[in-house]
Amino acid sequence: MFIDRLIDEVIDREGPYVNHPADRGGPTCWGITEAVARENNYSGPMKALPRSVAAAIYRRLYWTRPGFDKVAERAPLVAAEMFDTGINMGTGVAAGFLQRVLNALNRQGRDYPDLIVDNAIGARSLAALDAFLKVRGRAAEPVLVRALDALQGERYLALAERRPSQEAFVYGWLANRLGNVK
């Protein structure tokens, strides 16, 4: 299944337990922060977070709940990019990125109406995505992915500029999170 592969890739990339002093998320295991683990009823030590628990959290919080599964039915590469962005920046940010990109690519509303950037995937966002793909064709999906990557990269740089402690992570973010959806 597509999402199982994405989850395995992110867990492999994130790796086991880490507690970097500059990471505002605190202790993490498999990329799941302690706060997220606790909110999802995991009470054990973070170093012992089972991979299967992390996978279930990724599926629920970063795929199904934000509606990225519905995006995947239309544009799997876009959904994969949103999944990865949502894990690192929040699912609302990822949804807002797609809405902004679709607005910029609608040729001033000729192809479909502008979306309100509400950072949520709903019926209007999905209809805009459907219209974009109908007008531009399936070959345009990688263009959406590149645009999402561009917004993600800009956000990483802006974050490091605002909080110099985050410079410790910029290289890894750019190397491991941009351009990796294929």
Report on this structure.
With 182 residues, the chain is mainly alpha-helical. The chain has two domains: 1-65, Chitosanase, subunit A, domain 1 (Up-down Bundle), CATH 1.20.141; 71-182, no CATH class. Helices cover 63% and strands 2% of the residues. It has helices at 2-14, 34-39, 51-64, 68-74, 76-89, 91-104, 123-136, 141-162, 167-177; strands at residues 28-29, 32-33. It has a two-stranded antiparallel ribbon. α1 (2-14) packs parallel to α5 (76-89), α4 runs antiparallel to α5 and α5 packs across α6. The longest helix has 22 residues, at 141-162. Residues 96-177 form the Peptidoglycan binding domain.
SSE order, one letter for each helix or strand:
HEEHHHHHHHH
Percent range for β-strand residues: under 5%
* Alpha-beta classification: mainly alpha
Number of strands: 2
Could you tell me the radius of gyration in angstroms? 17 Å
Distance between the termini: 16 Å
Give the number of helices: 9
Overall pLDDT: 92
Note the main sheet: 2 strands, antiparallel
Low-confidence stretches: none
Give the overall shape. globular
Adjacency order of strands in the biggest sheet = 1-2
Compute the number of structural domains: 2
Task: State the share of residues found in helices, binned by percent.
Answer: 55-70%
Would you kindly provide a brief summary of this structure?
This is Peptidoglycan binding protein. With 182 residues, this protein is an all-alpha fold.
List keywords for this structure.
182 residues, mainly alpha, Chitosanase, subunit A, domain 1, two-stranded antiparallel sheet, 2% strand, globular
